[in-house]
Amino acid sequence: MSIYEQGLDRNAPNFRPLSPVAFVERSAEALGDLPAAVHGGRRDNWAQCRERSARLAAALQALGIGRLDPKWGEIPLAFVELKPDAVLSAAELLAHCRDVLAGFKCPREIRLEAVPKTSTGKIQKFMLRERARMGYAST
Q1: Does this model's pTM top 0.90?
Q2: Are 28 and 50 in contact (CB under 8 A)?
Q3: Among 9, 23, 58, 115, which residue has the least CB neighbours within 10 Å?
Q4: What is the count of structural domains for the chain?
């Protein structure tokens, strides 16, 4: 332990864990217009990454499952639960998926609804599979 760490308790004024979202926010503040991601001809700076990740961080829970399909056997379907104050559409999420995923991995449908969980917080995948099989949204 260094002399700078002695006697310091981990509390709000002197310690904040670094999550991926916090990392992007800190990087955007410090590095603003510098390139953060280069993919082909597309160049995003840190400020653009922060704005994009803040929009997509509105998804609280997301889970992809396979839905039976007569032609392909199974196709991807995504269930997304948004934060209460989030403003994000299924079309925006689908556009993001098409940007970052291969075509066969991209969900054919995104359903914005509450994701069923057990009392311990685990996602009940069997209920989502049943919803996908029956073709309805939430119960």
Answers
A1: no
A2: yes
A3: 9
A4: 2
Measure the CA–CA gap between 45 and 38, rounded to whole angstroms.
Answer: 9
The residues pairing with 117 across neighbouring beta strands, listed in sequence order, are 123
Which whole number is the average pLDDT over 108-133? 85
Both tokens assigned to 74: 């199974």
Q: State which residues form the domain around 36.
A: 16-57
What is d(CA 65, CA 47) in angstroms, rounded to the nearest whole number? 33
User: C-alpha angle 26/29/32, rounded to 5°?
Assistant: 120
Helices (H), 1-139: 20-31, 46-56, 90-100, 125-134
Q: Do 114 and 90 belong to one domain? A: yes
